[in-house]
Amino acid sequence: MTQIKPFQAVHYNPEKIKNISQVVCPPYDVISKEQQIRLHNASPYNFVHIDLGKDQPRDNDTDNRYTRAQKLYEDWIREGVLQQDQQPCIYFYKQEYRIVGQRYSRLGFIALMKLQEDGDAKIFPHENTHSAAKEDRFKLTSMLKSNLSPIFVVFSDKKKTAESIFAKHFEQQPPLFDVKDEDGVRHMMWRLDEPKYIREICDALEEQKFFIADGHHRYEVAQEYRKHRLKNRPKTDGSPFDYVMTYFTNMESKDLQIFPIHRVIKKMPKALDFLEEYFRIDKIKVRDDLAVLLAKSGKNECTYGLYMRDGIKLLRLKNKALIDQNIREGSKDYRHLDATILKHFIFDKLGITSDNITYVKDIQPAMAMVDHKEADASFILNPVQIQHMKAIALNGERMPPKTTYFYPKVLSGLTVYKME
């Protein structure tokens, strides 16, 4: 059975930290080097000091960013900068934001999700992972014996049980935290400790399938950590490390946003003459037209934007039959994924490998890298639709890394799951 349950979160103490916006940070894997430095300088209590500490030249086996994170974590708890709730809770989490002037509001909640045995089919990942990132998170998890950031899961509840409870009992109540991030996203959190409503939410999700939207590395690390803790001891049921801290949101919500991740090519190895064999190519004179034309064409065709210093082009695959003729691997859902088609029809023919690609979620920076001669070309993609992601996950397949970008991200530092 899929199980979720409340927990006693560790979080910042509002009596000690008056401005929570100065101490929370984005998930570690979207923080750039420049942002890491900025967050480190924002406050000595910014969560980035624990979640993504700096390496130092003098680092060794006993003094490194993992041991320093452990000391900070313990010091902050001892000093009361961080405190743990006394009662198990579910934490409602609402985000308000704008995209191209339009307002959105996404509601979810943070709770614990039970890890599943291999072969169970209730929790579905959709992206491949990298071993280096998992090794980093495993070291940090083992050192602190805590989940520092929730994984991000979507589910389908047409009755909208959690949303109804929130609207009836919490929407008009002041939140525990209310902060704005650097992107202008407003993050608000409420504590739900009423057993009756907690049970209603848990029951509504008991038979649900969960799809991992974000945090694949953290989920796999949680599984590995559990195996590590169970080594040489009998299996348990309900131990703290049987669960992982998770943010849940309803995929039925119209405010669930998935952004594309564009591919910026540092060095173009060959000419692009072969493109005409597979694509209809339209020249675009005005750069601001690219996003509009890409979205419009992408409703019915496999379409890419190609931004280079000598011009802007819209690439439209001539015939969808070419996909099954040229791509043999994976299901139809996988073969018809834009990232898969781009790799097989363009990158493989050019000999482009992952070390020649920079992944960028926003179109303007992707084009700016070409303008500033930091790259030769940018391939601009349309976003993956949630039902396409769900279909691939249900097939037991994984998309290439950096295929989806769920927005907005869930902040790190609002809740921590202490397993010891």
Secondary structure layout plus pairing:
Blueprint: E1 4-5, E2 10-12, H1 33-42, H2 48-51, H3 65-79, E3 82-84, E4 90-99, E5 102-114, E6 123-124, H4 131-144, E7 146-147, E8 151-155, H5 161-169, E9 177-180, E10 186-192, H6 195-204, E11 210-214, H7 216-230, E12 243-250, E13 257-259, E14 262-265, H8 275-278, E15 279-284, H9 289-297, E16 303-308, E17 311-317, H10 321-326, H11 332-335, H12 338-350, E18 357-360, H13 363-371, E19 377-380, H14 386-394, E20 405-407, E21 417-418
Parallel strand pairs: 6-11, 8-12
Antiparallel strand pairs: 1-5, 2-3, 4-5, 4-10, 5-12, 7-21, 8-11, 9-10, 13-20, 14-18, 14-19, 15-17, 16-17, 16-19
Helix pairs in contact: 3-4, 4-7
Span between N and C termini?
25 Å
Give the amount of beta strand, in percent: 15-25%
Q: Stretches where pLDDT falls below 50 for ≥5 residues?
A: none
Mean pLDDT: 93
> Sheet bearing the most strands, described?
9 strands, mixed
**How many separate helices?**
14
- Radius of gyration equals 23 Å
How many domains would you count in the coordinates? 2
Would you tell me the structural class of the helices and strands? alpha+beta
Tally the beta strands: 21
Oligomer: single chain
How much helicity do the residues have? 25-40%
